[in-house]
Structure formats: C-alpha cells, structure tokens
From TrEMBL:
Residues 99-272 form the Class II aldolase/adducin N-terminal domain. This is Class II aldolase/adducin family protein. Pfam families: Aldolase_II. Keywords: Lyase, Metal-binding.
C-alpha cells in the first residue's frame, strides 16, 4: 500500500546519458515523458562550476541554481549530494499541501485534461513553491517526492528536478497574487491556441476568467521567453492559452485553478463546435454583456449575510 492508500509497488529509476559534448538526457521512473512536439526529455549543457558544486567541490556547497531548460543545471544523479544537503525536512503544512497538490495533478489526468505527465501543477505557500517534478507519472508521486523551491528557483526540498516549466510558474507567482497554477495540454484548448490570438467570448463564462482569454505568442517550453509571454497574457486574467502548447490557469487555491482549467477547456470546446457549423459564425458577447456577467459573478456564491451582497 502506498502513502495515499493506493496499492502497488513504487519503483523509481532514473537514468542519465551523457552525450558527446556534455549534455544529458534524463529518463525518470523508466518513462521518457512525451511533451509534444519536442518531448520532455530535457537536454542542457552542464557547466563545470555547477558540476563542481554538485559534487561538493570547493566553491560549491550551496544549492544549485536553476538554469534554462533543466532547473537543477544538470543530471539529477550528479546533484544528489547537493540536493540532500540543500533539502530541509518538510513541515507538516508542506506535507499536507503536497498531498493535495498530488491529488490535483492526478485529477488533471483523470479528468482528461492531461495525458501522461504533459502538464504541471504548483502551489505557493508564503515564499515557498511546491511543484510537480519533471518526468514522474503522477500515480507514482509519493510523500518523498515533495519538490519545493523558493521564488528564485533555489531547491529547498526534493531530489527529482522540478518541472521544466518552473520558470513560467515562478514568473507568474512573482507577477500576480496567485496561490496555485495548473498547466495542461488539454486537447480543445490546445487546438484553439493554434487558431486565434484570443478566444472569442461566445459564452458569459468568459467573465469568470477576467475577460476574453488571450493566447500568449509561441515560445519554446521551459524558456524565459514563454514565462514572459505568459505573464503578459495573464494581465487582469485568471487564465490564458499558450500558442501551440496548452493552458495556464491561476487560483487562490488548487481547486480553483483546476476548476478554471476545466472551464477554459470547455469554453474552447464550445467555440470549436460552434465555428464548425458551415456557413454560420458564432455570435460574440460585447464588453457590456461581459461586464454585467462579471458583476453577477462577484455576487454569486456569497453568503446571504454578506453585507456586500
Ligand atoms: Zn506544457
């Protein structure tokens, strides 16, 4: 029986292959994880100073700083010693939050929003960010996989490298008051991201996400360019699409970020269905209708005794 009551034997394997000029390929848990169109096998050159730090050589006893594309800067096996030194014992609060985060990540798969490990989930607790690790199937995540970083990306807990989209998550947390982020490659939303620069507001649910959902211009996954484009697309919004990539939704907690992801995917599906009718064009809502809906949402769900109701 695993930590969350699921039966089965948890076997974790990591394999690192060094290529000719220094880059590594990482395969975690025996699963090279697909991250279309490139695959989520991460490749990055390893600088000699980082490898020295990872081995505990002079000049390198602190936590390894993240680098583009591979947040721990190299093969995770090389960094294991440094990771153990950097890792503190997670608090009970963090352990409980991690359990909720893992449950949320599994729901993205169960709800059809994620295939394999093609998405990622994070939660901010003060200046600590818990985030799904790279390349580990969610049904294999346990309490020992708790992955925590600070807002600069410095590893605080965990041995597996954080998601390759860590720069995006951190940039959003630095720029917004979000406390949770869900990123997926949900099929209808991803399809829409290849067609338009903004999801046409054909449903009033658009107002619940802050207005018409923007599509951030394409940039390679894991890149600082994608992180910047995402922050810009999220201005005054609770969600956005990433061109030729997927979705990002924010929340005050994990449940809200997941719910918004599901709503966005549903809205994209509705628009695709409506626009597929030959000879007809879906009608869009104007700013007045969206403002009215937004006002209604502000009162929706409040307790009857709420004086602001
Ligand atoms: Zn992605």
């Amino acid at each position: 029986m695993n930590w969350d009551g699921r039966s089965g034997v948890s076997v974790r394997r990591r394999v690192c292959l060094r290529l000719a000029d220094g880059p590594y390929l990482e395969v975690t848990g025996g699963f090279p994880v697909v991250h279309p169109p490139f695959g989520e096998i991460l490749v990055t050159p390893v600088r000699s100073t980082e490898r020295g730090a990872a081995k505990g050589r002079p000049g390198g006893t602190g936590p390894v700083r993240p680098t583009r594309g591979f947040p721990n800067g190299g093969c995770p096996e090389d960094d294991e010693g440094a990771n153990r030194r950097a890792a503190g014992a997670p608090s009970e609060e963090h352990r409980a939050a991690w359990s909720h985060l893992v449950a949320t990540a599994r729901r993205t798969v169960a709800d059809g929003l994620v295939v394999g490990t093609s998405g990622n989930v994070s939660l901010r607790l003060a200046d600590t960010v818990l985030v799904t690790p790279s390349g580990v199937p969610y049904d294999r995540l346990g309490p020992d996989d708790l992955c925590a970083v600070d807002l600069d990306g410095t590893r605080l807990s965990g041995e597996a490298p954080p998601t390759s989209e860590l720069p995006l998550h951190l940039a959003v947390y630095r720029a917004t008051d979000a406390r949770a982020i869900v990123h997926t490659h949900a099929v209808h939303a991803t399809a829409v991201s290849t067609l338009v620069t903004e999801l046409p507001p054909i449903h009033y649910q658009t107002a619940a996400l802050g207005g018409p959902v923007r599509v951030a211009p394409y940039a390679c996954f894991g890149s600082p360019e994608l992180a910047r484009a995402t922050v810009a697309a999220l201005r005054d919004r609770a969600a956005c699409l990433l061109a030729n990539h997927g979705t990002v939704a924010l929340g005050a907690d994990l449940d809200q970020a997941l719910e918004r992801t599901a709503q966005l995917e549903w809205m994209c599906r509705v628009w695709l269905a409506a626009r597929s009718v030959p000879g007809l064009t879906p009608g869009v809502l104007g700013s007045a209708e969206l403002a009215e809906a937004a006002e209604r949402f502000r009162g929706y769900g409040r307790h009857p005794d709420d004086p602001a109701r």
